[in-house]
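Q: Here's a chain of 197 amino acids. Please give me its 3D structure as tokens.
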Amino acid sequence: MGIPAATRSGTTLTAANIDSAWIGFQAEREMGLAMGRVVAIGNDADVAGLAELRFGAGRYQRGTIIVLTIGTGMGSAIFADGRLLPNTEFGHVELHGQDAEVRVAESARDRLGLSWREWASGFDDYLHLLEKLFWPDLFILGGGASKRSDNYMQYVTVKTPVAIATLKNNAGIVGGALIAVEKRNREAMSAAGEAMG
């Protein structure tokens, strides 16, 4: 499952848009016990990005790719030639004196009463900042706002190519399935190695 938090070794480390009780929570172990099955977790933007690189807008793409999930917060994932650098928190880079997601998450558009054009102006500033910091080869925009890209894409002016997530807001579900299969395969290989050794 994808969780809106940085994760490491099955534990959630942050809680920007969820209850603070998630900080330091051994999510894989506790959820596995509660459900009676093996659980795999990852940062929600990371798992969505994995799905987009495997099956969606990032398939067959090389170089540096930044996936942004635009929703309650601003999730991010960065890939270099298909390899994930986990737990980036680009929604918390400073933009105009505050966390970027305060102004550029989809929830900010509703909370601040912004038109799509007004929201897109700040979002475009954010993309320009990421472009200046990372010089990506591709941005992939996902999350809830990916379903309404016709409302804002005409206001995006970065030089980096921008693609809308093929899997839209379902990328996290597909990515969650991917990390579950990978975890199961690792555990099966480990068990087979122990049986042979």
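Q: Can you summarize the key feature?
A: The chain has a mean pLDDT of 94.
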